[in-house]
Predict the 3D structure of the following.
Amino acid sequence: MALLGVTASATGATDEIENAFRAPFFAAQSHPASGQLHIVEMDAASLAKIKRWPWSRDHYARVVDRLNAAGVRSITFDVDFSSPSEPVADSRLAASLAKSRAVITLPTFGQVAGSSDMRTLDALPIAVLRKHAVIASVAVLPDRDGLVRRMPLGTMTDGVPRPSLAAQIAGRGGTVGHPFPIDSAIEPESIPRHSFVAIENGNFDPSRLVGKDVLIGATAIEMGDRYATSRHGVLPGVVIQAMAAETLYSGTPVEAGSAFLLLAATLLTIWILLAASRKTGLVRGAASLFLLAMLHWLGWSAARMLFDIVPAFAMILGATMIMLVQQFQADQRHRRMHDTRTGLPNRFAFDSRMGDPAIFTIAATIGGYERLETVLGDTKADQLICRITERLTMGNGGESVFRVEDRALAWIFNGEQDELKSTLSGLAALMRSPLEIGGRMVDVQMGFGIGQGRALSEAVHAASQALQKGEPWSYHVAAEEAALEREISLMGELDAAIADNQLEVLYQPKLALADDRITSVEALVRWNHPERGFLRPDLFIPMAEETDRINSLTLFVLQRTIDDNLSWRAKGLQVRSAVNISARLVVSAAFLSAAEAMLSRSTIPPENLIFEVTESAAIADPKAAAAALTRFRDMGVSISMDDYGTGQASLTYLKNLPLSELKIDRSFVQFAHRDSGDAMLVRSTVGLAHELGLSVVAEGVEDEECLEFLRTVGCDYAQGYLIGKPMPAEALFALAREARRAAA
Ligand code: G
Ligand code: G
Ligand code: MN
């Protein structure tokens, strides 16, 4: 940001703002001139008296004589003497200059040589005059906006370096091309002035001029030579020269740029950004602006250094803004991380400490909290939570306690198992004595639960269980171990279940919409567990996949499907049967050869079989999936893409797979007759699938309206509870025969 400030001020982008700031800065320090410099003005009165213009140089000669007689220190002309006049008058003036004791300075005007020649010419005073005088330049440098704010210390005219009039009067040497700012705090009207004619005629008090510097120039409006200034409006050129000289009496001011104040601002920025609160930050921001203004003022008044303050100000304002945003974000964060009612850190705060070491999480649940809340009222219930938290903190060695639910508090415990027990029994004892809330003794029932590591929900659950069982605390680990145990034993049982015929295959009909017949079915497995009852596939299929039992399970389902299909055929029912093939089985060589063997052993025409493969299987390893599906296809089995729409497969991608059927996932079908987005998806999928030569099955059809919708979009098959739930083979046979009769 500092860099930005420097570049901005260097390129002049902030000039205008800087100038706008300087006007009141100078106004605030307004002061009269020193009195060392007097102006002898060629004013309206003088013009009226000496009628012929240009004036005869006799007049100037007389004024020089008068001023010398009064004992002035120097006489400087802001009058053009670059062309000769009457020789007598010129030599009279030359004689006066020659005998002058006061230093005489005559002006040179830098002039551009011509419209095509940009060199400056030195418009020097004529030779007779300049012999007795010092030459100084009267160039005035208005800014781009036309206002005069600076004056050069010296200028280069026609290759010769010259001091400026002001530098010459004040006796300051100057580097060519180094403008200095004019101190516009000086009140121009306080510079003593004398009318030219008054001096010429001796109508003045000579004692006032002893040792003074005198500047002679035109102030009459008729003479032109006027410039606009930022603070004092339009001033005659001679007055501006006088103010520049006055400025130099008290040292040579320099434009010191922005770097110094920016450096200060950088330090202040850090100070502001480190503020702990919004209020402190704002106070620091304001103090910083004040401090910078003081530095700016001090630089000028003590060292005559005029800094650019705008970049530094901008930096402080920027820093203050950033501080406000930061504070706002910190507030937001605090609000999100804390319970609004008690100010205790909440569940988000607990979660945000994920990286902290945690051996156990302990949760404390308050028994009958809703009742307590009703009896005590909200405010006192909040007080109660705070008092309990204080007690828990006392007994847990100072660990911070989080309010993770209305009724549950939790904290991290990093200690050994036996230490944990003593802490818990200590806490339980501590909680047995009643708490005083608003002059009333409240008994609190509290259960503690322990979770491994950061298992917060488990700890809370265990705490509720402890309350339920009337135990002071309970562990979650035990429950977890038990669940794990059950799962392992279940898998052990699966092998036996296949052998024992505990697995059953149900069939769900697919209705062909063209003729309202049931022409195919989907085989869906069920586990009829002796103790646990009917288990749905989502409970054991994923486990079977993980423990490598999916191959034998699927082969079992396939064999049963083939058998049932053959027995339906024997009874005169021609349907195609679909079997679900898990993603990981699709690419299994063992499954492929086993399935091949099974098919060749059977008399079922392979066209009667469909393998349903989920969309994600094809995505995981497209090449291997395509190769495997081609092998199935070669066996004569049709391939159906299941759960279409839930993965990311596009239809063009599916074009490369040997598919013959697409099953639109039930999440899109179920409300397609009501939801226009779903409807569009179903309609466009049907269209595209048909273009690719695939037939379309809509899954999950539950209402009549949905079925009607599917007919209108030209869907080929409908499957769902409306047509029939998954059912045993005999039930399916009966249903299909009925449908056939109805359609016929
Ligand atoms: O029947 P349904 O209710 O609950 O089936 C749930 C899930 O189990 C469905 O995604 C279905 O594809 C799957 N599923 C059902 N039977 C089998 C099967 O024999 N093998 C495989 N791999 N998945 C099946
Ligand atoms: O993924 P797959 O298509 O194999 O899954 C079929 C699953 O869809 C089975 O769980 C089956 O019970 C379920 N199912 C079939 N028809 C309907 C239906 O109309 N509504 C709902 N909610 N589920 C259905
Ligand atoms: Mn399926």
Summary: Residues 508-525+548-743 form a domain with the TIM Barrel fold (CATH 3.20.20.450). Residues 310-337 form the longest helix (28 residues). The longest strand covers residues 517-529. The chain has four domains: 2-10+264-337, 31-252, 347-475, 508-525+548-743.
